Amino acid sequence: MNDDSDVSIGARIMQIHDALTAGEQRLASVILELDGNFSGFTASELAARANVSNPTAARFFRRLGYENYQQARTHARDQASLGSPLVALQRRHRIGDVDYDLGRYAEHEILNLRRTMAEISGEKLHAAVQMLREARKIRIVAFRNSVLIALYLRAQLSLLHDNVQVLPQLGMAMGEDVATMGAEDLLVVVGMRRRPPVLTQLMRAALERNAKVLQLTHIGAPASPNPSVLTLRCVVDGAGIFDSYSTALCVANCLVSLLEQSMGPGVAERLANIEALRKDIDGIG
């Protein structure tokens, strides 16, 4: 395998997607729909799902930089374990006493932010803000640790937009919300490492209804070939064994701040009304 073991198979696919044959693109679609979690399948099983021959499958994995399918499957298994505190603990060897130095963590976050800045261009930020501003309704979906980012986004976007909700809503099935989405709507998918397959299913359902998708995810996740999907990727490696989401929160803050700046003077009146109600109803001065 080439010396790029930190690059996920999904990211490798997107790097050469346009150059793939029709059969290879079908196989690529199968792997992307599985979110790269294909290690439980044999090469023949994947080929059958994509309706391609075994030689086509073998050629496909070689084009991605693997010597054979077994090497690709091992790499996929290793990639799937990224973000696991247990795996991170097993890979690191503590030497000596615990170092109570906040500076080491702060410096690591600064490095993460710099790497994320290099990944997310001004053009991507502009496109993301335009999607948020033009959406009739915004639905934010997240699971596990990503929920904290989704809740922050919802809290801030609700100050600027009339129709923002986090899925799943209490006591409701997600399909009920996604079923009513249309071309004027936006699904914001927050999915950091170890994301559940249901996120891919929700994205596909939204796109089938002509909704747009804004994806906030980790650096190893692939972008989508669908022009209706915009992917913003963040570096979430922690200085310890746990992933850190400060970069994702920074990007979220950047998006809502840029959205506010793009909306004009009407924002002041809206915020003044909200603040007055907070004082009268919630007792927040």
From TrEMBL:
GO biological process, one term: carbohydrate derivative metabolic process
Domain of life: Bacteria
InterPro entries to which the protein is assigned, alphabetical: Homeodomain-like_sf, HTH_RpiR, RpiR-like, SIS_dom, SIS_dom_sf, WH-like_DNA-bd_sf
MF terms (GO), sorted A to Z: carbohydrate derivative binding; DNA binding; DNA-binding transcription factor activity
UniProt-listed Gene3D superfamilies: Glucose-6-phosphate isomerase like protein, domain 1, Winged helix-like DNA-binding domain superfamily/Winged helix DNA-binding domain
HTH rpiR-type domain span: 7-83
Protein name, entry field: MurR/RpiR family transcriptional regulator
Annotated organism of origin: Nguyenibacter vanlangensis
